[in-house]
Amino acid sequence: xxxxxxxxxxxxxxxxxxxxxxxxxxxxxxxxxxxxxxxxxxxxxxxxxxxxxxxxxxxxxxxxxxxxxxxxxxxxxxxxxxxxxxxxxxx
Length: 91
What we know:
The chain is α+β, with helices and mostly antiparallel strands.
């Protein structure tokens, strides 16, 4: 059975055991960042890349659905045509 959940890997469990040995009760919490180009209507229909953050301990069936609020908006990466840079290679 092929699975794409982070916590199913052998590395995860080996590292968790080492961590708990040194610090009882500690756990691994991976931080995931994601982005997708979108139209941002509050900025006069400009395009931007919103950056979202979630933790890897949440199953993907939950964090992939916006209605579950498992991701938080960290910020926006603006898109630009870089018209102020005349050299096409540098652009």
